[in-house]
Specification:
Number of domains: 1
Bound molecules: NADPH dihydro-nicotinamide-adenine-dinucleotide phosphate, 1,5-anhydro-D-fructose
Domain NADP-dependent oxidoreductase: 26-262
Largest sheet: 8 strands, parallel
Oligomer: single chain
Order of helices and strands: EEEHEHEHEHEHEHEHHEHH
Protein name: Aldo/keto reductase
Number of strands: 10
Structural class: alpha/beta
Radius of gyration: 18 Å
Shape: globular
Keywords: NADP, Oxidoreductase
Family: Belongs to the aldo/keto reductase family.
Pfam families: Aldo_ket_red (PF00248)
Number of helices: 10
CATH topology: TIM Barrel
CATH architecture: Alpha-Beta Barrel
């Protein structure tokens, strides 16, 4: 029998967040992002991950509004960029993102990177936005354990989500454990390693066994690890296929074989070695 996975995880403040979302980094503002969001919502996605950095919040909002789906059924995440960190600047950046999205209160607002000397102040602004009901949840991105501990020691509200690079080559075991213990939902960015691992023999073999694609195998592996996943695509066939991951189950042995692909290898920047 297939272990059933519900559509959403429940964050520590009780808010439901879909396990699967569409990532829109490098998706062009305008027609491209509007079409990608429309396709995702047509194929059952109920979550979109953007950022002010991606410069496509306007099209994300348009895609959601034009979908005809109730706004409260779609979960929208955006992020405050590094140069906007600090208390006042974060409040202004939030206002700008919300104006572009034009979708009412936000669902999740994230600190994009842990900018040293800034992120505590940024978080104070996020707490205010949350308490004012302007965003239903707040969280962080690219935070390592020491950043999370520091933030938790110096703030009132614990982040609800930590979005980090996570895929079979970077399984972030300690961070995952820390987040689970502290009820901080881990979310995987670049879950498909930007397409670089999809022809790996372990993944193609497991994919053949289940009649699935290697991408679907990775995304299912995320779900079975209790990790929210946000693959990006602008192709409708891939958007559709990437969502078709709720009708099969990886065995424990298959999960282990995928875990063993870990090499601590990144496709993006290292948060402890990032020059902001
Ligand atoms: N918080 C942060 O710092 C970061 C957050 N993110 C978020 O995470 C999201 C996902 O990460 P991202 O870096 O985009 O990379 P992904 O790992 O999602 O990979 C996206 C790439 O894989 C291709 N692809 C998608 N589906 C398939 C498939 N089924 N088969 C083959 N190729 C496929 C896409 O091409 P195509 O579009 O042509 O299908 C694209 O080139 C981002 O879009 C963004 O929202 C990403 C980086 C950093
Ligand atoms: O969200 C993001 C998209 O990818 C970029 C390049 O890796 C990251 O820097 C950024 O955090």
């Amino acid at each position: 029998m297939i272990r059933e996975i519900t559509d959403t995880t429940i964050l520590h403040n009780g808010v439901h967040m879909p396990w699967l979302g569409l990532g829109v980094y490098k998706v062009m503002e305008g027609e491209e992002v509007v079409q990608a969001v429309a396709a995702a919502l047509r194929h059952g996605y109920r979550s979109i991950d953007t950022a002010s950095l991606y410069q496509n919040e306007g099209g994300v909002g348009q895609g959601v509004r034009e979908s005809g789906i109730n706004r409260n059924e779609v979960f929208i995440t955006t992020k405050v960029w590094n140069t906007d960190q600090g208390y006042d600047k974060t409040l202004r950046a939030f206002e700008e993102s919300r104006r572009k999205l034009d979708c009412g209160p936000l669902d999740l607002y994230l600190i994009h990177w842990p900018v040293k000397g800034k992120y505590r102040e940024t978080w104070r602004a996020m707490e205010r936005l949350y308490e004012e009901g302007q965003t239903r949840a707040i969280g962080v991105s690219n935070f390592n354990i020491h950043h999370l501990k520091d933030l938790m020691q110096h703030s009132r509200i614990k982040p609800m989500v930590n979005q980090v690079e996570y895929h079979p080559r970077l399984t972030q075991k300690e961070l995952h454990h820390f987040c689970r213990e502290n009820h901080i939902q881990l979310e995987a960015w670049s879950p498909l390693m930007r397409g670089r691992l999809l022809d790996h023999e372990v993944l193609t073999r497991i994919a053949r066994i289940h009649g699935k694609t290697p991408a679907q195998i990775i995304l299912r592996w995320d779900l079975q690890h209790g990790i929210v996943t946000i693959p990006k695509s602008v192709r409708e066939d891939r958007i559709k296929a990437n969502a078709d991951i709720f009708d099969f189950e990886l065995s424990q042995e298959e999960m282990t074989q995928i875990n063993d692909l870990n090499r601590g290898q990144r496709v993006g920047q290292d948060p402890d070695n990032f020059h902001f």
